[in-house]
C-alpha cells in the first residue's frame, strides 16, 4: 500500500457526526447564535460544507443535538461527582448540587454555549425541546437524591425547582468570572439552603 493510501482513512460515520456536534458547540461558544452557520460549523470541524446536511436536516438539528450532547457531558460530570461522594444520601445530594460550581461545569466556554442555546429557545422548537429535556433530567436527578435524603419532604418537585434556580444563579456568576463569592462559598450557600429543608 502506498504512503498516500495509508494516509487516507475514512472517519467512522458516528465520529464524523460527533465531530460536527462538538464543532457546533465550539462555534456557538465563540461566535454566539448569530455566528452559527453550515459553513462555520463545517470549517470548525474541518470538513466540506455539504457534509452537515448528510448528518442533519440543517443547522437547527445540529444545534439541538449539540445542546443534547452538552447536557450529557454535564450529566456525566454530575454522575462522577455523586459516585466519588461518601455513600450517605446527604453527601450524594451535596455532591450533585455543588458539582456545578467547579470545572468542568463551571466554565466560561460552557456558559457561552448555554447563552447561545438559551437565546434560541423562543425561536427554535427543536432547541426548546432539548432544553426541556436537559433541565427535566437534571431536576429529576435532584428530586431523586432529595427523596433519598429526606423521604418526608412534602413537595420534592418544588424543592428541586427552587434548588435548581439557586444552583443556576450561583453557577452563572461563577462562570462569568469575578463573582462576589468563591466556589466554596457557593457550596456553603447551597448546603445551607438544603439544610433549611430538614427543619
Automatic annotation (TrEMBL):
InterPro entries: BetI_C (IPR039538), Homeodomain-like_sf (IPR009057), HTH-type_TetR-like_transc_reg (IPR050109), HTH_TetR (IPR001647), Tet_transcr_reg_TetR-rel_C_sf (IPR036271). Residues 14-74 form the HTH tetR-type domain. Residues 37-56 bind DNA. Keywords: DNA-binding, Repressor, Transcription, Transcription regulation. The keyword Transcription regulation applies. This is TetR family transcriptional regulator C-terminal domain-containing protein. It comes from Altererythrobacter arenosus.
Amino acid at each position: 500500500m502506498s504512503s498516500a493510501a495509508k494516509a487516507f482513512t475514512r472517519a467512522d460515520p458516528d465520529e464524523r457526526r460527533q465531530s460536527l456536534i462538538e464543532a457546533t458547540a465550539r462555534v456557538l461558544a465563540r461566535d454566539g447564535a448569530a455566528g452559527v452557520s453550515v459553513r462555520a460549523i463545517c470549517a470548525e470541524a474541518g470538513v466540506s460544507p455539504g457534509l452537515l446536511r448528510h448528518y442533519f436536516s440543517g443547522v437547527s438539528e445540529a444545534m439541538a443535538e449539540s445542546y443534547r450532547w452538552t447536557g450529557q457531558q454535564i450529566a456525566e460530570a454530575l454522575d462522577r461527582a455523586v459516585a466519588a461522594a461518601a455513600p450517605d444520601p446527604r453527601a450524594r445530594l451535596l455532591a450533585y448540587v455543588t458539582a456545578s460550581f467547579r470545572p468542568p461545569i463551571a466554565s466560561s466556554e460552557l456558559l457561552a454555549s448555554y447563552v447561545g442555546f438559551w437565546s434560541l429557545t423562543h425561536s427554535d422548537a427543536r432547541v426548546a425541546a432539548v432544553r426541556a429535556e436537559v433541565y427535566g433530567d437534571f431536576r429529576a436527578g435532584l428530586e431523586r437524591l432529595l427523596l433519598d435524603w429526606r423521604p418526608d419532604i412534602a413537595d420534592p418537585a418544588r424543592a428541586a425547582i427552587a434548588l435548581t434556580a439557586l444552583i443556576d444563579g450561583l453557577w452563572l456568576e461563577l462562570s462569568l468570572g469575578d463573582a462576589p463569592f468563591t466556589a466554596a462559598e457557593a457550596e456553603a450557600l447551597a448546603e445551607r439552603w438544603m439544610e433549611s429543608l430538614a427543619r
